[in-house]
Amino acid sequence: MNFCSKCGAQVTLRIPPEDDRPRHVCDRCGTIHYENPKMVVGCIAEKNGQILLCRRAIQPGYGKWTLPAGYMENNETVYEGTRREAWEEAGATIQDLTPFALVNLSFISQVYLMFRARLVKTNFTSGGESLEIRLFEEAHIPWDQLAFPVIRETLRLYCADRPRGAFSFHVCDLHADGRVG
Amino acid sequence: MNFCSKCGAQVTLRIPPEDDRPRHVCDRCGTIHYENPKMVVGCIAEKNGQILLCRRAIQPGYGKWTLPAGYMENNETVYEGTRREAWEEAGATIQDLTPFALVNLSFISQVYLMFRARLVKTNFTSGGESLEIRLFEEAHIPWDQLAFPVIRETLRLYCADRPRGAFSFHVCDLHADGRVG
After folding, report:
1. What is the pLDDT of residues A51-101, one digit of tens each?
2. Using the beta-carbon criterion (under 8 Å), do B5 and A33 form an inter-chain contact?
3. Max Cα separation, chain B?
4. Which of A2, A33, A102 shows the shortest C-beta gap to B6?
5. I need a labelling partner for B56 at 20 to 30 A (CA). Which of A85, A95, B65, B101 fits?
6. Nearest CA among A111, A112, A90, A101 for reference residue A45
């Protein structure tokens, strides 16, 4: 950030009065520009014991498999965002969303919130965000071709809970080196 | 938003190619400025059956009671943010954080994530954000002097779960008119 989005003047990175960390502050109008983590919402959509994965048509992770997920938009709920992403990335309609995992990616200031959901139907098309949509048995999950560590960890937690026939709500941290804490 | 924070030129509100909603786009450098919901993290801190409330020293809600909560900062986890807010607003050290409620406030693009926590200790001082810190028995919660509907709803869910001796993870929507859905 170089300029004030309100008045167009230059900003300076400094600690405002009564604050404890540097912010971009406008030298002219005084606006303090706070920056905050972004939320990503997504789901493990299940149908007849199979789960829905999408093969990415965009970078990063082009050609690799992922769960439908993406940035929350303003003025939507976590449920609405999750359903929107399932529709945009997989042409999928989902129901019965249940919170499953919250993964902190603090090194890139992201919080992933992943739900389990019932896949009602999919048209297996994606409007350009995915190369391919497919339902996978657990035994056929392409572990070595997953797009992101956070997706691998979400699926790992899911597969660990599944034999119990009960799912917990998990909170974990994913670090830059791929370590889970 | 009027100006590009990257290059300082004017921005226009328009729908970028392959997008489906208006964004502030820079007419000069082409940067698309996405805006996303903010996460607020906070806690119900318990000690000997009592819970910690803070009386706000700032607007909005000056003089009213609230749970320690605030915007997540970049590069922190939801746990770190919750502990920081408990410290900043109540001089409180907390442990054993358990996710308790996620409240969508989509009309103001906020997501509240509230934890239950064990209050280890508090120095009952707050560094200026609170007028007063106090531990309340459930029967003495000042329901008519709470600062925000989201705090009231969080405490209502907590008091509803409590007699069962077990707490669920709740997801709900709070609307502009105060209705919970």
Report:
1. 999 999 999 999 999 999 999 999 999 999 999 999 999 999 999 999 999
2. yes
3. 60
4. A2
5. B101
6. A90
Q: Please count the other Cβ atoms lying within 10 Å of the Cβ belonging to residue B131.
A: 15
Q: List, for residues A24-33, the tens digit of each pLDDT value.
A: 999 999 999 9
H helix or E strand, kind and range, residue B100? strand B92-105
> From the candidates B28, B35, B77, which should be mutated to test the interface with A, based on the most A CB atoms within 10 A?
B77
* Tokens found for residue A76: 């939507």
- Please report, for residues A12, A34, A136, A145, B58, the alpha-carbon distance to residue A16 in angstroms, rounded to integers and kept in the order given: 10, 11, 52, 46, 17
Does domain A38-173 fall under CATH 3.90.1570.10? My reply is: no
Q: Cβ of A129: how many Cβ atoms within 10 Å?
A: 17
Could you report the predicted ipTM of this complex, rounded to two decimals? 0.95
For residue B93, give every residue at least 6 positions away whose Cβ sits within 8 Å of its Cβ, in sequence order, or none: B83, B86, B87, B119, B120, B121, B122
- Report whether pLDDT(A37) > 80: yes
Distance of CA B73 to the CA centre of its chain: 12
CATH class assigned to B1-35: mainly beta
Angle (CA) B94 B96 B100, round 5°? 100
- Yes or no: say if B111 and B105 are a contact pair by the CB < 8 Å rule: yes
Taking Cα atoms as reference points, which of A92, A93, A100 lies closest to residue A159? A100
Instruction: Tell me the per-residue pLDDT of B55-68, one tens digit each, with 9 for 90 and over.
Output: 999 999 999 999 99
Q: What is the pLDDT of residue A128?
A: 84
Cα–Cα distance for residue pair B118/B111, rounded to 1 Å: 23
**8 Å CB contact of B72 and A111:** yes
The first and second tokens of residue A117, run together, are: 């959901």
Task: Please measure the distance between the N-terminal and C-terminal CA atoms of chain B and give it in whole angstroms.
Answer: 31
Domain assignments of chain B as residue spans, ordered by start: 1-35, 38-173
Closest residue, chain B, to A105 (C-alpha): B77
